[in-house]
Amino acid sequence: MQQALAGATGVKKINMAYEQNNRRKHPRFSVEKAIYLEVVSRNSRSEADNTIILCNTLDISVGGLRIWVQEPVAQGTTVNIAVPEEEWKENLELVGKVMWSKEADDKPGFWLGLELEDTTHENMERWFKVVQRLKQ
Questions:
Q1: In the predicted model, what is the mean pLDDT of the chain?
Q2: Rounded distance, CA 121 to CA 5, Å?
Q3: pTM for this one?
């Protein structure tokens, strides 16, 4: 009986991992790139009230990013994302939401899962091109 339960638990864990991996709408690509994140405070009256941090992408997709940051950012927080382009001469600006946050396994800091939210059609087209270029 205990073996049957242990086996069922193992199957359940595998199925949950499979379902989580297949929830994604877009494939992810391992890309490490420095980006800026502006954490939008709920009580913010202007951009000057928000915290801006330098962070690194770990993987990206058309619909989101996984990033590493030094300080935690709460789940549900809205963030403005600045992706430097053309040797840091220009930024692609996107809006995202922190979907999850967890302590990083490999170094001090935190991993965040960001889902991109509606932004201009032009910026989403530019982001799609950035993803296509960086995945190669």
A1: 78
A2: 50
A3: 0.73
